[in-house]
User: What shape does this take?
Amino acid sequence: MLIAVPMAMMATANHSAASAFQEKSAELWLGGDVNLGDGGREQLQGISGIVQGATGVVNLEGPVAQRSQLLTHKFRLWNSPNALGELLALHVQVTGIANNHSGDAGKNGQQKSAVRLKQRNILPAGGPARAALLHLNGLVIAVTAHDLAHGVPPRLAADLSAARRRADILIATFHVTGPASYLPRPELRRAVEIAYRVGASVIAAHGTHALGPVERREHAVIAWGLGNLAFACDCTQEKDAIILRVHVAPGWTIKADVIPIQAGLNQRPALPAQDAKGIFDLLEAIGSSKLQRQGNVASF
Assistant: This one.
């Protein structure tokens, strides 16, 4: 026997389901390479309006250490523990520590960086820290960081699968070493395919300091190159960069925005891009998914 359900009850049920769905989602932003040196320059303050209070994930280029703790026989990067407040001011809660400069303070640099980040309530990802588990709005979000300087790690699929099993959402990040190029390197293409098959909702790359395409692929979004975010040293000239802002739910990305910025280089502040349209044109020219533009923000 069929039982009639009043429309008001159905509307209430639908509203409750929608409310529950909204509660099981989170807003995050992802930025590229960050190096703060001794800090105190407020290099990230200029993009506070872009991130709008969302939780941040960045790659920390170089160890958390004082300049005096660095190895001295070649070019080195560092991030003073006192400079980490600049990340906290932008709600950065996860930093990748798997990159080609993570050992610039010695063999145990990654481990020491992980300890110092945790002391400031920032979760390290990559290397000995493995996956960071971020608890946000009732969700568990796993953030992984892998360095591809020596190719795709043999255990990449296993590492990502293990992280995915522990979380509602997987965000996979990769650091790539090589000349600045708009085209993704072969090892990055292989790593991204593995992350996508494992079920990552967001996949992002950095390291060559150059922009790459942005792509929507079914349940996932891919940023093939975020570029620089801020570099305290005069050691990279790549100013064009993007911030990826995402709205994620278990198993997929609801919405993704790309926001062009001008990276903060040589102790100057990062700022919104002066020519957002030009960067959108460039992103589409190098193979991005179609961008839905609204001023200085584009969805894909």
